[in-house]
Design a protein that fits this description.
Layout lengths: L9 H8 L3 E11 L9 E7 L22 E3 H8 L6 E5 L9 H9 L3 E6 L11 E4 L17 E6 L3 H10 L7 E6 L4 H14 L3 E3 L3 H5 L3
Parallel strand pairs: 2-4, 4-5, 5-6, 6-7, 7-8, 8-9
Antiparallel strand pairs: 1-2, 1-3
């Protein structure tokens, strides 16, 4: 994949395209706070760079990849291997802007499970144990991505997002887990609506950003 920043040396550009360098925003060991795997310990790797442009995004500082240092993927993998939970969540930003084959292959060599959180707006690369698809209206998922999702997580900012949820649910596998999650700034307004919707449509489940209630990363 072509890197989106100017000024790279040809050598670094090649390493980035191979996924052996990544613009690392942050990495941390914590508890997964959202969706199907909520409550489980995992090492999070947040990659910088995103052009999906959700106006309510709570990590807008991830959008500009140029402010995040290009980091050796081998170093990132080594850090992940130091923790008891052998599970890594790769997120962003939009992590699929980059080639994730190398990092996931290296993680799997260390018997670390691989999880991704993506909008699906870019082609799927990498070797995954779990794909969480959180589609956004600004850049809908590419054809073929929804069928590979293990989990569909819709962020509910307004009432129209219930319609968006059902439109996306038509494209996932029958065994895909379906979640509705209130956007944090709208949680008091949207959570009661989500509760009533799930009661009427029990194929869906509720998701909360429990890490924010626990005041952890």
């Amino acid at each position: 994949m072509e890197y989106r920043l100017s000024g790279l040396s040809p050598a670094d550009k090649e390493l980035l395209n191979e996924g052996k360098l990544l613009p690392l925003m942050e990495e941390f060991y914590t508890i997964q706070g959202e969706g199907f795997n909520s409550g489980k310990a995992a090492y999070f790797i947040r990659i910088g760079g995103c052009d999906v442009g959700c106006h309510w995004c709570d990590v807008k500082e991830s959008w500009d990849a140029s402010v995040h240092p290009l980091t050796s993927t081998d170093t990132i993998v080594a850090h992940a291997g130091q923790y008891p939970a052998k599970a890594v969540v790769i997120t962003g930003g939009e992590p699929l802007q980059y080639n994730l084959n190398y990092i996931t292959a290296q993680l799997k060599q260390k018997n670390i499970q691989t999880f991704i959180e993506t909008s699906g707006a870019y082609p799927l690369s990498g070797y995954w144990d779990w794909v969480c698809l959180s589609p956004k209206k600004t850049m809908p998922p590419l054809p073929g991505i929804p069928e590979q999702a293990d989990e569909l997580k819709i962020i509910v900012f307004n009432k129209h997002d219930f319609k968006w949820a059902e439109e996306n649910a038509k494209n996932v596998r029958p065994d895909c887990k379906l979640f509705l999650q209130p956007e944090w700034s709208k949680r008091n307004e949207m959570t009661p609506l989500i509760v009533e919707y799930v009661k009427e449509h029990p194929q869906w489940m509720t998701s909360l950003q429990s890490h924010k209630y626990m005041n952890i990363p």
